[in-house]
Design a protein that fits this description.
The complex is a heterodimer.
Chain A lengths: L11 H22 L17 E5 L7 E7 L2 E12 L11 E8 L16 H10 L10 E11 L4 H15 L9 E8 L2 E4 L3 H5 L3 E8 L4 E9 L3 H34 L1
Helix pairs in contact in A: 2-3
Chain B lengths: L14 E2 L4 E4 L9 E2 L3 E4 L2 E4 L3 E7 L2 E5 L12 E9 L3 E5 L6 E4 L19 E8 L7 E3 L11 E2 L4 E4 L2 H7 L6 H9 L3 E5 L3 E5 L3 H13 L5 H15 L1
Parallel strand pairs in B: 3-7
Antiparallel strand pairs in B: 1-6, 2-5, 4-5, 6-7, 8-9, 8-11, 9-10, 11-12, 11-13, 14-16, 15-16
The chains are: A alpha+beta, B alpha+beta.
């Protein structure tokens, strides 16, 4: 039997691959010019993608949230507080257990990338500063994040979505946590990069921020940055996080209003 | 020294989320404020720590009322528990809380070593929380404060379903909940509501049990008028 596809066969993967290569070539050309260039989705450098957030998609969980930022789609479920396993030692503060996983169809290349393996611990570090662990001793709160589609800036979206899910579950928190990432391209700083832009970045900065308290819970920096640009990037992230915080608050309040009506 | 009544928070009866400043204490002097669940003091401000509606219980007491799937045990709450294990001195009961609750074998009316109740695993029990502490497992009792069984004990037959804690509070609210009011006028049934978000319904006819259960489950996200309309619609279908 011939392995070759017939004339009527439709092969979406090849076409998608060609388009992706074209976009990368275009991006590389713009970077070589080192000037202001239009982003693939028409945004300016300091514009975030349109955000859609919703609470309560998972009925079995204590709290859950769904977030969609452009092509990135994430669902987070929170279970607990529930009794810690017998094997664990007694603890007078609660435990926060975070797990981030990707669906097999989330990325063009099947399987979770090497960079994404540490997302679970990064999510834990971003949230543990905001969650009042002393309010549920001897117990564990489980946070399970599932990336349905990866379109870039996955970790910040996971953190923001997890924070919304924790609030939905009624877990005591000092404040909501919002997160935004920026990428550095030569002299340009772009906010909320897509996966294509992340592939060509010189450096990246992820900030997890508590908007009401104006405190940073996590700051992750990779690549080459100069002092002045780091300051600008952090300020840009904090401003975006504050605006995202308002969206999260409105989302929670809207859900409550719908329930009461 | 005269104690003045503190001015109420502008956010009372509004929805607040973690981090929201509920009260500014710098504007107050010589005033006592009691904080309920979901609130904490941070320097000169009172902040929300959980999402929900801010309620003013007394002129100087505030708390956040929210609807959750999990239950946080509180003393004097009436709960519906399921026996998950039996020990010589107590039963282990699941009350949808962070930890299993203890129900001592002697905490029944006239309970002695000779007449210990025998509950199988899976038995549904209506009980009262007598001890609730974040560090210890909650303790239940099937007696009221006077030592009488009252309404507590094993619930036989019927149908039990889960709702949110907010829904169970609504069913137990002081002006009777519209759903129960309309259903009670037309149908004959027994109901036990636990503040832990569990409801037990029993009636002579299975159709009545199904109708009452469905009406309660559907009413969670409806206003009073819509609840009445929905129940009347269900009753029309039955007749």
């Amino acid at each position: 039997m011939s392995a070759q596809a017939g004339p009527g066969t439709y092969s979406p993967a090849a076409a998608a691959g060609d388009r992706r290569r074209e976009r990368k070539e275009e991006l590389r050309r713009h970077l070589a010019e080192d000037a202001d260039w239009p982003r693939a989705d028409g945004r300016s450098f300091h514009d975030c993608r349109p955000a859609f957030m919703q609470t309560g998609p998972t009925t079995a969980a204590s709290g859950s949230a769904y977030a969609e930022f452009g092509k990135t789609k994430v669902i987070v479920s929170v279970f607990g507080p529930r009794e810690s396993k017998k094997a664990m030692m007694y603890s007078d503060v609660g435990r926060l257990n975070c797990n981030v996983s990707y669906t097999t169809f989330a990325t063009p290349v099947r399987g979770q990338g090497a960079d994404n393996k540490e997302y679970s611990s990064m999510l834990h570090k971003a949230l543990e500063g905001a969650v009042m662990l002393h309010t549920f001793p001897k117990t564990t709160v489980d946070v399970f994040a599932l990336v349905l589609e990866s379109g870039g800036s996955d970790l910040p979206i996971i953190i923001s979505c997890a924070s919304l899910a924790l609030a939905d579950a009624g877990i005591m928190m000092y404040d909501l946590v919002t997160s935004v990432s920026v990428s550095c391209f030569r002299k340009n700083i772009i906010i909320d990069p897509t996966s294509d832009e992340e592939a060509w970045q010189d450096g990246s900065l992820v900030v997890a921020f508590m908007p009401a308290r104006k405190e940073i819970t996590q700051l992750t920096l990779t690549g080459e940055w100069s002092d002045g640009r780091i300051t600008n990037a952090v300020e840009l992230c904090m401003d975006a996080c504050s605006k995202l915080g308002d969206i999260l608050r409105d989302r929670l309040k809207d859900t409550a209003t719908l329930t009461c009506e | 020294m005269e104690l003045r009544r503190p001015a109420p928070s502008p956010l009372v009866d509004n929805y607040v989320v973690p981090g929201d400043v509920v009260l500014d204490l710098s504007e107050m002097n010589n005033q006592t404020i009691k904080l309920g669940a979901g609130l904490r003091q941070e320097c000169d401000t009172i902040e929300a720590t959980s999402a929900g509606k801010l309620r003013q219980l007394k002129p100087n007491k505030y708390c956040i009322e929210n609807s959750q799937k999990r239950y946080k045990p509180s003393v004097e709450d009436t709960v519906l528990g399921i026996v998950v294990d039996t020990k010589p001195d107590n039963f282990l009961v699941d009350i949808k809380g962070p930890n299993l609750a203890f129900l001592p074998v002697l905490s029944f009316e006239g309970g002695t070593r000779r007449n210990i109740p025998k509950f199988k695993i899976g038995t549904l029990i209506y009980a009262r929380v007598v001890k609730a502490n974040s560090i210890m497992n909650p303790e239940l009792s099937c007696m009221d404060a006077t030592g009488k069984a009252a309404k507590f004990g094993q619930l036989k037959d019927g149908y039990m379903f889960d709702t949110s804690t907010g829904m169970s509070r609504m069913l137990l609210s002081s002006p009777t909940c519209p759903v129960l009011e309309v259903l009670g006028k037309k149908l004959s049934f027994e109901i036990a509501v636990g503040l832990n978000g569990r409801v037990w319904v029993n009636a002579p006819a299975a159709s009545t049990v199904i109708l009452v259960s469905n009406a309660i489950m559907r009413s969670e996200s409806l206003s009073g008028i819509k609840q009445r309309a929905m129940v009347e619609n269900l009753l029309e279908r039955l007749s």
